[in-house]
Structure prediction request, 317 residues.
Amino acid sequence: MIPPAEPMQRREIATKGFRKDTLPGRACITWLINNKCNYRCSYCLNGFEEPTNFKILPSEEWIRIWEDIYQRYGTVAMQVTGGEPTLYPRFFEILKGISLMHNIELQTNLFWDPRLLIDQVSAEGISRVGGSFHPEFTPFEVFLKKIVAIRDAGFRVEINYVASPAILERAEEYIAGAKDKDIQFSIISFVGEYQGKKYPESYTQEEKDILKKLNVTSGESAESMANWDLEHKKVGPIKEVEVPARVCRMGQMYTWLKPDGEAMRCCKSPLVLGNMIEGTFAFLDEALPCKLDNCICWRNMTLGEEDRWQDRWPGVK
Ligand code: SF4
Ligand code: SF4
Prediction:
């Protein structure tokens, strides 16, 4: 009889080279593993096209790619998201493999059975499971039960909620339900278009009052959102200016990885750092000037503003 395989050991190594001493002290990656979703939220900004523009890789191939990143840069802090990431074929196998060497935050709508995670993946390499609650597609009680089961199995969890005007009404009730189970409930402001209006600029005073009362944080500028000063938070097309507005470490310490393997400097910048699947990816060796004048990223790594952003990244403490 063949004995059961030895459980694989988690290996975590420090950030390699100069990045160890460069804030935030660890390379960070947002991986949009797919752009497919089984929900159709009215406020979704992803669009609902079925993905056709990228190749599905077997789990072994992804684990090899992430092993290469591990060898070159050490353990990275990775947010795995989508679409709904768990729809990727053999997703939990991939998650199990990469969480043995990287620190993973999983963002999911949690439509799946929590046992898929609990039975296959160790909580050790998962820094957080962020369950995005979408009331148009799942009752709160069902969602809460799942996230509590994941928390009780040893994972750190959080509920995320997008403050779309479409679903703001019952937010207070959901917050109370999460608090009752001792689960963090984070509301982020809605950025984008809904029913022909641009947000966050178009929140009514009444909606702003609700958001303020609920202590909403913002994806773009926690400080300005706290004061509800929306003056500098216009959402618009990407514009470049002659003189770079700032020097930013995004690209050197961070990449935004698309489903086809193309690695961008960040979610706004057009600068491509190579392709992870084709083996041409490398982080920048230094922070570069950025010519985009309407960057509203609340975590942009502008040099000289480290006090604002260093604690917003999962670095090495
Ligand atoms: S769960 Fe997320 S990706 Fe899916 S439709 Fe809703 S907002 Fe869009
Ligand atoms: S300043 Fe903003 S747009 Fe420019 S690289 Fe940094 S995060 Fe990206």
